[in-house]
Amino acid sequence: MDALREFGPGLWTAEGPPVRTLGISFPTRMVVVRLGDGTLWINSPVEASDSEISVLTALGPVRHLIAPTKLHVWRLLAWSARFPDAQLWGPPRTPRCYGGLRFTEMLADQPPSEWSREIDQVIFRGNAFLDEVEFFHRASGTLVMSDFFQSYPPQNGRPILNTLARLGGVGGEGGVGLDIRLSFIRRDLARASLRAILAWNFDRLIPAHGELRATGAKPAIERAFRWLRA
Fold it and tell me: What is each CA distance from 220 to 95, 150, 217, 226, in whole angstroms?
């Protein structure tokens, strides 16, 4: 885990080690929110050392561990062992017991009472393989996404990686990966989810993979999903 960085009031991010999929390396990121009761809400936790955990727990006790998509469930394993009293929240279309974990509850369109005052949420539906839960942190005006939106600006000396990102639809200002885009088979459901997201008053964006956006997030999301609204 890289150092915690404050991204807004009561909101931090930390970078994790890259993961490899189909031979391609992807960065990882977790999001930490300190709730009104002083406890911590952690979305997609990343690998962390004991000293890094000490820095984190100085902010408050870890109460909620979130997997917003089944692709991120494995990221809860080490943290659930480290924090056995934390509540585990799993993604839709996932068994209550899955991947060696037993979830407290499955995420839905409405946030649970434990964080409904600080964080809103909606399931991005319509994909054949994945439902992804998107979150809105009200105090900072931040949208938190996982895999459906990614952003990889060009890197010097990495022509092959830059080409793959551009061809895959996630280069430059970012977008929806071509593989993910093609797997949306219920666009009516996806459009309804997108409308709910765009109704939030956000200007900042934290994706799980790729570049953070401190301003102009809503126009970026509108552009990225323009193909869906056509």
Answer: 33, 11, 5, 10
Band (169; pLDDT cuts 50, 70, 90): low
* Among the listed residues 202, 210, 142, 213, the one whose alpha carbon sits nearest the alpha carbon of residue 176: 210
Strand partners, 44: none
**Domains within the chain, CATH numbers bracketed:** 5-224 (3.60.15.10)
Task: Assess contact for 61 and 69: CB atoms under 8 A.
Answer: no
C-alpha 142/C-alpha 9 separation (Å) is: 10
Q: What was the pLDDT predicted at 165?
A: 55
Report helix, strand or coil for 82. helix
Name 215's Cβ contacts closer than 8 Å, sequence gap at least 6: 203, 204
CA–CA dist 135, 197 (Å, integer): 9
Three-state SS at 62: strand
Q: Which of 150, 160, 144 is nearest to 197 (CA)?
A: 144
